[in-house]
Amino acid sequence: MPGAPTARGSEPPDTLPRPTIAGNVALGVTQIVLWGGTFFLTAVVSDPIVAETNWPQAMVVGALSLAIFVSGLPAPFVGRMIRRHGGRPVLVAGATIIAAGLVLMAVAQSLPVFLLAWMVAGLGMSAALYDPLFAAIGQAYGAAARGAMTQIAISSGFAVSLCWPATRFLVDHVGWRGACLTYAILSVALVVPLFAWALPARSRGAVEPAAAPRPYEPTGSTEAARLPAERLLAVTFTMAAMIMTATSVQLLNLLQTLGVGATAAVALTGLIGPAQVGVRVVELALGRRAHPAWSLLLSSASVGLGLLLLATIPSLAWLAMVLYGAGNGMRTVVRGTLPLALYGQGQYAAAMGRLARLPLLGQAITPLACGYVAERLGLLPLLEVMLAVAAINLGLSLWVFGFALRRPRAPA
Length: 412
Known about the structure:
Blueprint: H1 21-36, H2 42-53, H3 57-72, H4 75-85, H5 87-107, H6 111-125, H7 130-141, H8 145-155, H9 159-198, H10 230-257, H11 262-269, H12 272-286, H13 292-312, H14 317-343, H15 345-376, H16 379-406
């Protein structure tokens, strides 16, 4: 298990914490379990819940949006706590809170209690999913975190492919309540120990660096520095997250509207997972020396081109899925690696907390907005809206790309 230095510069460099492949794989497993019990749960359990309880379908499905919204509210606070105390206690607490929400969900006998359960889970999501995890390892490992983030993303890249069938199996054998309890047990019995084992007890980034502040950083400030382009960076992350959420919600319906059969549509969406993992493997092997801004630009361009092909040449839907999957795979990694390059290790965790809030709020409203556009205008206009958002995001990514390359990398 990685060591835990008491202060920057107080120990020889060879005693500082270093990521390991085993630890990164373990952290990838934590994300599979936690995403399976939160983001990917509703798609499988919503129909059985409605059948048993007669609660409105819109409310059952919309509970996930409520959880995502709640998860965005404390994100800056979570970042500050990781910066101050290190990642291990924060992520352990997050996984435990998710488990509590799942237990409450499993025993809920009324819709208000069910919605409260998702709000509790949302609080845990703010402290245990990708953004806080990347903040924790970025602060702990500095420049070495880029490879760790990519390895974690590779390990968890097939989360959807694994979790949906596993949840369906659980629903068929122990019911939806049993499925929620199973994920709660896994969160406590598997995820918490893996977080405790794979993350340093207290990272060196939890102690403020002794170096002089940079020009944009007030002397003696207790808050992480804010870059001039921080709001624009948050907008690019938000647009990318909203496109991902919209695609996850509406992709099967869009493909069938474009003339693809139901069976073929499911098979085509199966290309996204391998494309995500494949591009992360390439990033791990070849991208370490390139500035993460290149990954941001390639991610935005790949997603935009995939949606353009889907809208204009449906016969190339397979290529559209590969391009979209590759772009989305890079997006997961770049949202951790680019802020690390821009802010540096000491500022990273708090900056990640701020950058996480707007994307989460955007994700929360996306399913509702997609449903409204699809109902009022149709699915093809919805695809055009998604394509327009992708085009705007590509333009903003170009601006961030230029800013990032002009600015020297922050010290790790």
